[in-house]
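User: Hi! I have a protein structure encoded as tokens and I'd like to know what sequence might fold into it. I'm fairly new to this, so please keep things simple.
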């Protein structure tokens, strides 16, 4: 458990439930409705050039406000990462099989 405090802000206490698990995802699908954003996390593997398998394991619903806040936090952290380690390059298609 950790506690974060800022002047003028309420104390924030963060804890994990017994069900909490860390997982790796190299696939994230986003579905949007009027009411929420739905993020589906999974792992992607490619056994052949024409065969890709995605195994989804967790779906998370976010309000539009939380989705926008998440986008901001991710952008801030990506900027810091790139300042430290260099620009992240996105390729339209990765060469060879994806493992």
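Assistant: Happy to help. Inverse folding works backwards from shape to sequence: for each of the 99 positions I chose a residue that suits the local structure. Here it is:
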């Amino acid at each position: 458990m950790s506690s974060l405090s800022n002047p003028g802000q309420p104390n924030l206490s963060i804890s994990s439930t017994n069900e909490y698990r860390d997982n790796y995802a190299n696939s994230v699908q986003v579905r949007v409705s009027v009411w929420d954003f739905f993020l589906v996390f999974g792992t992607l593997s490619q056994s052949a050039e024409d065969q890709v398998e995605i195994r989804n394991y967790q779906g998370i619903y976010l309000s539009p406000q939380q989705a926008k806040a998440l986008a901001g936090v991710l952008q801030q952290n990506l900027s810091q990462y790139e300042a430290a380690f260099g620009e992240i390059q996105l390729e339209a298609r990765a060469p060879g099989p994806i493992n």
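A useful reference point when you look it over: The longest strand covers residues 37-48. Feel free to ask if any position seems puzzling.
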